[in-house]
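Example record used in the benchmark description.
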Amino acid sequence: MKEARNKIKVVLEQQGRTQVWLSKQIKKSINTVNAYVQNRTQPSIQVLYEIGKVLVIEPSDLLIKTNLSNESK
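Model output (structure tokens):
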């Protein structure tokens, strides 16, 4: 199973926002936003900042922190 890399879906749900709303705010297609939300692809740093701005959240709070030392084992 593919591991999640971002929490965009969780934040949208917490704020009662939709993917359609987010796609309009950041001027990306609904397919692109859906790919971000489903963790099929990850937004660029610039897009992550745009998402953070419209959701009024720090971009780093949209990311799932991983322990890199455990990944190398």
